[in-house]
Amino acid sequence: MSKLNVDIKPVRDIISKFGDGQDSNLIAILQQSQDAYGYLPKTALKEISRLTDIPLTRIFGVVTFYSQFALIPRGKHAIKVCSGTACHVKGADDVKQKMKDILNVGEGETTPDYQFTLETVACIGTCFLAPVMMIDERYFGKLTADKASDIVQKYSEKTQE
Amino acid sequence: MEKVKLTINGKTYETEQGKTVLEVARENNISIPTLCYDKRLDPYGGCRICLVEVEGARQLVTSCTAMVGEGMVVNTESEKVIRTRKGVLEYILSDHPLDCMTCEATGCCELQDLAYTMDIKGIDYRSGEKIGGVIPDRNELIYRETGKCIRCGRCVRICGEVQQDYAIEFGGRGFKMWVATPFGESLLDGSCVLCGQCVSTCPTAALFEKKAMGKGRSFQVKKVRSTCGYCSIGCQIDIHTNHNGIIKITSEVGAVPNNGNLCMKGRFAYDFVNHPDRLDTPMIRVNGNLEKASWEDAYDFISKKLKDIKSKYGSDSISFISSGRCTNEENYLMQKFARAVIGTNNIDQSETECHAPTLTGLRNSLGFGTTTNSIEEISKSDVIFVIGANITEAHPIIGLEVKKAVRNGSTLIVADTRRIWLSKIAKTYLNLQPGTDAYLINALMNVIIKEKLYDEKFIEGKTEGFKELEKAVAKDEPKEAEGLCGIPEETIKDAARIFANAKRATILYGNGITQHSFGIDNVNSLVNLALLTGNIGKEGAGINPLLGQNNGQGAFSMGAVPGFYSDYQPVSDRAVRKKFEEIYKVSLPKNKGLQIREMFNNAYKGKVKAMYVMGADVLMSEPDTTRVKKALENLELLIVQDIFMSNTAQYADVILPAACFAEKDGTFTNIERRVQRVRKTVSPPGEAKADWKIISELATCMDYPMDYNSPETIWEEIRTVSQNFAGINYKRIENVGIQWPCPDTNHPGTKFLYEEEFGNGKARFSATEVKSSHEKTDKNYPFILSTGRTLYHFNSGTMTHRTKGSVQKQPYSFVEISQEDADDVGIKDEEMVRITTRRGQITLSANITNRVMPKQIWIPFHFVSAQANLLTIGSCNATHSKGNSSLMPEYKICAARVEKLQ
């Protein structure tokens, strides 16, 4: 993976918005920082610790506790393949395997060009569409392995344009 | 405290409100199993193994968090309780490796013990999935294996609550939860101070002492209780040994005074004991070279030389430097040797170079030249004033007490030239300019007097000299102090009000107060402040000097000082002298001896011809090294008795190899006047002997028989000649030490001084004119240099530089410098710089930090490679050197230059 340079300014701006009582706003600060960077860079977390006086260990504990936070850069698009009960029965495994094959990544991993991050989630609440996956905020239902492949292919092309 | 009655297992108990069910049960020998519980920590209720049934409660409750209540009915052994506990344990064991046969913790594993007593095999819910493993970490002290972790959180909590270092924290969640450092960094890189408190509380082998691994299980090793040999807190330690020597050091929760807590040095810095560099045979200098010799030859050589010098130049041409590192018994013998065998009062020791002003100042105003209160009382003070003491590094376990007190609501005031750790949790931080302590304290008193916040009744009834004080501080307005100390007037006023309004305020001070040529004025000012506010003679209120060496307190009180015999009995007092003459069976010298500083000045001038140095590396510890070296070279005879070939030893004519603290019996007196046992756990290397043995044999060789067969027999003699120690004997201090004064064997010892009255009846204010005598900065030397201790090393470093961990964490010396100054000098972090003063120069690495203020620099004095004392000032303020027993060199301030090394 290519090395990423991290600009410290966004995280400083975010913290300054919170004023006092930053302790109790840690999660919000982390969420906004993740939005700004796409993940939580080490440099940004160290800066949060320095400016809020919250020990870095504590921040690290919170970040690793919640699955919404990522410590390594994520792709431009997040692919979430549902593996809830309904999807599982309807063949989510095939979809998942196909994704792994065409993207050449494992679960939780990101493609070397930072386009896609593949995740599996327990249930996204649209069992009537099973098997389902989400790309970013969009749902794709009643999938087969090939259908899913085509969808991802389209995202790929769009990105390259 | 309100009383409540409750019933446990059908029996009624009366206890105090505010206790937990678990505490009351354990006090009454009712066993309740626990895993996440450690007395040192807040109750957590995480492991669920301490569940009990409480009548009327909807479900089982965790006894570690449940407070007792009136009429409570508790059952700790019901069928439901037992069944549930077994289930809980089965769950905990479901992912725990069942490799007890090769596990380090076998025999001292709380989980294993519980599984055994509850007959749980840990196979019911076993998933078979292997979770966790050994965390790779290049630190050489602490081993971490996540697979053995039961997520009780004790390590994480002790690191956060007690140490407040926040080096580790739970990462992740569920089965995959692990004890994490940020981004998996090594413990060497984060905020970890390698204290090993996490290891001490881990119930399994998830955390373990790396150095002890593979060296034997707890039931295969010998464990001996002793007293730590580093700082003056006197932590009780258990030394574990196998046939090869020390394998680890632990401490028991509940031990006085450290309650199971230890710092990095106490727990891990014992590698020096068995180090190949240890001196293991006597040596005599022949034709300029040190050659191995037998004890007999060494004694004969010394005896002949000392007799020659004595007859040629007189007794007072010989000087003795005793040691705050050696036992009470050894210090007593050393002073006896000087006085009875040689006939001189030229006996002193290096703690004098730290706390002579304490001895003189506190003694003159209060009665005893020592600490007034106990360590445990710190948590009972509502205001703690820390001045000139970097406690969390120099006295880490007292640091824990201060942290605990602040966490429980005490107010902390910190006055220091550097932004030390404690300033982070202080309510008021007084960032004063170097050398302005007395101005600041006088300004505080000025406010207290002006606003009538002083304790009139106390002053009236228990003190004298208030009027003079009032007059003396009247001109020290906080506004003026603002200019001098660099602290805003309002901040000074606030601090004064906080201190004066406290019910119980305690003062903790260190070498930052004493190590000035005007150190005595600083100490007197602090005494004045304590007296003015009536903060003395009660629990949790007093004035407490933090002596540096493990037995500095004992060296003073055993008479290893020029002016006093043991128990501070003045040599100038004819009756006292007569008493000692009768016991020592010789006539004793009348004239006051030389203080350590004068010894070197006189050796430099050629007046002192011989020096006997025991357990002190004076070439490292004395100021202005170049001059000290010249003084040592001038001597006709230098005897050095030490455990290593120290810098000083290299100039010796005779070297006597000594035993270290782990290799001998005896007693140390800690900072709170507690006389505690030191016990032999391993044998000294080669032919090395305990210091008391060496002194006795040498005295006998010089026709003054000292036939003590053990340190206990020496102590028995000390008791008979020292009233305040008369009640202390080895039997009484077998388990817990006793604090002197303790005049008879029924006396419990004295927790805090002056409850009834002061040593001289009334306490005396000593109005002091504040002075500034420090070396001035100028164009060539624009920085103010100060020196001090770090957490990882001790004194001249002979012990800690031979210890894993200390060396890893702090391998070389450094100078702390502000960013602003670093930019001016043109240096980056970790670049090499040259520091020059009017006396010498050293080169070392720059540490750019906001701990120091601009135009100030700070250097630790532990490193031979960059000897801080080549830079410091040795000469004393002239007005203080005449007839003043508090003679102090200007260790803490000198003018310096910083240059980038080209």
Describe, in plain words, how this protein is organized in 3D.
- The complex is a heterodimer of chains A (161) and B (902).
- Chain A has seven helices and four strands.
- With 161 residues, chain A is α+β, with helices and mostly antiparallel strands.
- Chain A is elongated.
- The mean pLDDT of chain A is 89.
- Chain B has 902 residues and is of the alpha/beta class.
- Among the domains of chain B are: 3-93, Ubiquitin-like (UB roll) (Roll); 283-354 and 551-739, Rossmann fold, CATH 3.40.50; 375-533, Dimethylsulfoxide Reductase, domain 2 (3-Layer(aba) Sandwich), CATH 3.40.228; 783-900, Barwin-like endoglucanases.
- Chain B is built from 28 helices and 35 strands.
- In chain B, the strands form nine sheets. A seven-stranded mixed sheet of chain B has the order 14-13-25-24-23-15-16, with helices on both faces.
- The termini of chain B are far apart.
- At the A-B interface, helix 4 of A face strand 7 of B.
Please summarize what this structure is:
The complex is a heterodimer of chains A (161) and B (902). Chain A is an alpha+beta fold and 161 residues long.
List the SSEs and their pairings.
The complex is a heterodimer of chains A (161) and B (902).
Chain A (H helix, E strand, L loop, with lengths): L8 H10 L7 H12 L4 H11 L3 H10 L11 E6 L2 H5 L2 H12 L12 E6 L11 E3 L2 E3 L4 H16 L1
Helix pairs in contact in A: 1-2, 6-7
Chain B lengths: L2 E6 L2 E6 L4 H7 L23 E4 L6 E2 L9 E4 L3 H15 L16 H9 L23 E3 L9 H9 L6 E3 L6 E3 L16 H5 L5 E3 L12 E6 L8 E7 L2 E6 L13 H5 L14 E4 L2 E4 L2 H19 L4 E5 L5 H15 L4 E3 L2 H15 L16 E5 L3 H4 L1 H12 L3 E5 L12 E3 L6 H14 L5 H7 E2 L1 H8 L4 H8 L3 H13 L3 E5 L1 H4 L4 H14 L9 E4 L6 H6 L16 H11 L11 H9 L5 E5 L3 H4 L3 H10 L2 E6 L11 E4 L8 E4 L4 E5 L12 H11 L9 H11 L16 E2 L23 E2 L18 E6 L17 H4 L4 E4 L1 H7 L6 E5 L4 E8 L7 E5 L17 H4 L12 E7 L2
Parallel strand pairs in B: 1-5, 15-16, 15-23, 17-18, 17-21, 18-19, 20-29, 21-22, 23-24, 24-25, 30-34, 31-33
Antiparallel strand pairs in B: 1-2, 3-4, 3-5, 6-9, 7-8, 10-11, 11-12, 13-14, 13-25, 26-27, 27-28, 30-35, 32-33, 32-35
